Amino acid sequence: LSPGCHDVTLTAYNDYGYNTITKPCAISIPQSEGCTELFISEYVDHSMGDAIELFNPKSTSINLAEYSIAMYQNGAMVPTASQTLSGSLQGHGVFVISSPLTTMGSISDASDLVSPITQFDGNDAIALMHNGVIIDLIGQIGIEPLTGWDFGSNYTPNGSTFIRKQTSDRPETNWSVSALQWDLFFDFFYSHQLGI
Length: 196
Hints:
By secondary structure, the chain is mainly beta. It has helices at 105-110, 175-178, and strands spanning 4-14, 17-29, 39-46, 49-55, 62-63, 67-72, 81-84, 88-89, 94-98, 113-114, 125-130, 133-138, 160-164, 182-186. The chain contains two helices and 14 strands, in the order βββββββββαββββαβ.
């Protein structure tokens, strides 16, 4: 299997028929050493605007047309919204997607794309996809937490900025692993840098 998140389908048969169950993103295949894959580096959930920042860990540019963002609102099993990206992102560069409702200047000034895909409310799963395969994930598909996603610290909806730790250099589809890869800030917008 290629690196990323893969669905698993189980079909059970008996004398009375069969039943099929599909679990989205049930298997996570990690990236190889020396990551060259785009990943979500920042997640802003703020009353003055939401945003997602993507980071290119490569030294060369990435074709963004191969990528899309999908949102799974309120525990949905299938995407409720999606946004295909375009253009290219230079090596070690960031690409910021912000909400059309954003009024925070630091987010608006840094934004490369304004899209309703970032109108999340803290309990929506957000997936970064490469050629249709989930490679990075915030939250868990099919689950709706009551107070928002636990980023390994106290989560405060509508006022938090989560930045991937500088030691995190690759995407991750297993939320139990990824949830511990974030630092919490309040009311600020930063730009990701690798610290490895």
